[in-house]
Q: What sequence folds into this?
């Protein structure tokens, strides 16, 4: 009878540990997304009140976001691609892309 309980206890232990790991993973992903968003908005110096749409997971090495908003001192809507290095926790931002060309504005 003792032999039958060991696999059950092992299964219960694994299930409880996987729940803890999953919960911390969710929190880690949320923290990563928040860091990507904050740093990408800060890096978008040519955009007034930038808005960042963050890829929830990015790639294996990089966090990714699309930063959009009104260009400073001009009309219109622009977008910039932002890349966050997950190890260094630094960002690089691409050049201004016209949102209309990207299809990000509604058709008239």
A:
């Amino acid at each position: 009878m003792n032999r039958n309980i060991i696999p059950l206890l092992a299964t219960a232990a694994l299930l409880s540990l996987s729940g803890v790991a999953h919960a911390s993973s969710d929190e880690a992903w949320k923290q990563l997304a928040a860091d990507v968003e904050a740093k990408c908005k800060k890096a978008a110096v040519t955009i007034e009140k930038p808005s960042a749409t963050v890829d929830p997971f990015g790639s294996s090495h990089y966090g990714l976001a699309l930063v959009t908003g009104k260009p400073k001192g001009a009309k219109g809507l622009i977008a910039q691609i932002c890349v966050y290095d997950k190890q260094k926790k630094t960002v690089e931002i691409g050049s201004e892309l016209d949102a209309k060309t990207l299809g990000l504005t509604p058709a008239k």
